[in-house]
Every structure is written in C-alpha cells, then in structure tokens.
Amino acid sequence: MKSNQLVSFITYGCKVNQFDTDKIISNLPENFTVIDDISLSDFCIINTCTVTDNTDNQFFKDLKRIKKINPKIKVLVTGCLAQTSPDKLSKLKNVDLIVDNANKYLIPKVIKEPDNYQNEIVSNIFDIKTFDDNYQNLKEDRSRAFLKIQDGCNYRCTFCIIPFARGRSRSMKVSEIIQKINELYSLGFNEVVLTGIHLSSYGKDLNITLIELLNIIESDTDMPNIRLSSIDPADTSIDFIDSICESKKICPSFHISLQSATDEILKDMKRRYKINIFDDLIKYIRNKIPHACIGTDVITGFPGETNVLFERTFDYIKNSELNYLHVFPYSDRKGTKASMRNDKISDYEKKKRSKLLRSLSSDLKNNFASRFIGKELVGIKEKNNKIRTNNYIDVIIESEIYNPGDIGTVLINKVENNKVFGKIINPQIQ
After folding, report:
1. Which of the four CATH numbers 3.10.580.10, 3.40.50.2300, 3.30.420.40, 3.10.350.10 does domain 5-123 have?
2. What is the rounded CA–CA span in Å between residue 305 and residue 313?
C-alpha cells in the first residue's frame, strides 16, 4: 500500500449519520487525506441510510457510478443498510468491504490494513448495551456543533427498520455531555444541537430524564444556545414544555413527529399517541411560546391510508399550528409488519399526496415567517450570508459583517418567493 492514501466519503440520511461520518474522518490515520474527487481516491466510504426506498436506490446508483469512474477504488459500505442487509451487499461485485453500525468506528483501522480483515465485519447490534461515542462535530465551516447524546430505539413502529439498524436505546453520561458542551463553547461555538435516533428516550438507561439533563446544561454550561432535534409526542409532557419556556438557552423550535393525523393510521403504525394528544401538545406550545417554530414528520401512503384518511391528515395540518413538514412517501422495509400488508397504496398516489403536502409545507413556512416582518430576531450566522434565527427561520442578509457562528440580531424585511430577507442591526451579542 502506498504511503499517502486518498479517501472520499458519501453519507446519506440523518444528522446522526453525518455525525458518525465526521467521527470516522476525525480518527483517520495521518497518511489518509479526505478529498471529494472519487476519480483520484483510493477508498470510498459510503455511510448508508435505509429509512426509505429512495435512499436505497440512490446508494445503488452511486455504487455503479463510483466503480465506473474509478474501477480500482476500494468501496467500503457502512451504516444502517450494512447493518440490516449485509447478505445483500455481499453479493454486489462493486462492494469490497462491509462494516456494520456496530463496528463502524473501526473503519480507520480497517482501511489502514484492509488485507487483515475479511470482506464483512458484521455483528449483532443488540449486543451493544452502552453509549460508546466519544466525539463531537467540530468542522470549522459549520456555524454550530452537533452532539450525539443518544443512539438506538426501543420501540417498534410497524413501518420502521431503524431499531434493527441502530439497536437498543443508550445514552451518553451527563458528565460527558457537560464536559463536551463546555469544550465546544471554549472553541468558539455559540450553539450546540443535541441529536439522537430517539432523543426523547435519552436517559432511560441512566435513570435520568431529558428534562433533568436540560436543567443541568442550563446551570452548568455557558453555551448560549441549545437546540433539540426531533422529539416524540408520546414522551413530551407539559412539564417538558414549561421547562423549555422558562429556559434562557433552549431555542424555541420544536420538531415533533406526527406521521399521520388519523387515529386509525396511528394505531396501525403502532405509534404511542392519538391525534388529540399531539394536537393538545402543539396548542400548548403555541400558547406558551407564541414565536416558537413547530415542525413535524408526515408519512403519506401508509398501507390502508384511503383518500378520506389522507384528506383528514391534510386538513388537520392545514388548520394546525404547524410551521413546516418533512414529508416521506411510505416505503416497504423488509421485515417490518407494515411491509406484509396487502392494502398498499400505489406509487402514483403516494407521489401525488407527497406533492400536495410539500406545497402545504411551503405555505406554512412562508406564513410563519411573514408573522415576523418588521420584527427583530436573534440568531446564529450561517455561511452564504444567512442567519438562522433561534426560532428556526433562515434569513438572507444584506452583507457579510461577521463570521459563521457569531450571534446577531436581524430585522425581518420581507418574505418573497419562499425566501426570507432581513438586515443585521446588531452584529454581535455578548
């Protein structure tokens, strides 16, 4: 093997996956250099997602493309697809090495001496009982840091393969979280995003709640902004919302999974709440924190979702306090209960419904932003002349006054063509 090795990365899916990729990069041997040009690379590491058919299909397309561009490149596949379908991947001639989620942090060692390993490093993800991630995202070109504090999921929604890809829920120790947040602040970060596969499950294995963790972060760190990734309505109490409302550090933005606004579909999905629970929660947030941004996930075309049931979901969202949507057409995941049903919705219908929901999401987002025209909002400077406000509005600003990651105040001027424009009125808040 030559002394200087070039390696490319392709990452699909969620922020947790990107976080995992960044950790792998941070631990690469010194003689490995990360580049974007696959044609020049010795290795390509693909961190897969298998939540939907779209991500699977994109992976297979990219796999063919990579070997066509660079026939000599060694392709290592890791991530959720490698965990759930190693046998399928092992049959692909374009895949040289498979390393599952349980072992993905071994990849720096594997690519250093690939001949010392078999073609597959696959184990039982459910054998992992403790949180063993000791890394935070510190990429210099990002305005905020992401900190994964939880992994895995103990629940079994009928459409979801993730528990089999990520294993049981497990949490980072509180002391480690506090230490890392303080380190991030000392490095110049003014915002940290707490992430996890099922963030609402944080601490159930440590005998502590997410509320208690947030209270400790509030008192024991100087980090100005704490942002939460997606949370589960079944685990989001009124006390939790009250705690955030009283906080001076937790950003007033919520991403709370819905999936469907009908009890019939929620039951079939094996979700742990009914629509009235979700609705009461959203209304309570809006009443307590009027300026909060509230987003959600929606799966359309779940088996058995008739036109009537879809219309009920659409109408509910249209008249709700929600401000944006992440829309996912239902995808069969092998081994899940939903995949075995006979009342599937056609691809045509799923695409039609997805288009309607995404258009609705755009309207909701614009309507929310328009509420703040003429008002001042605090946020974090992004790249490319943008500020993301604490309540999750991306604002295009007029000039490059300060560096990514700085805190500033922006005056919202207008909302036009799905874009929000504003002017910096306070470059830096200490």
Report:
1. 3.40.50.2300
2. 10
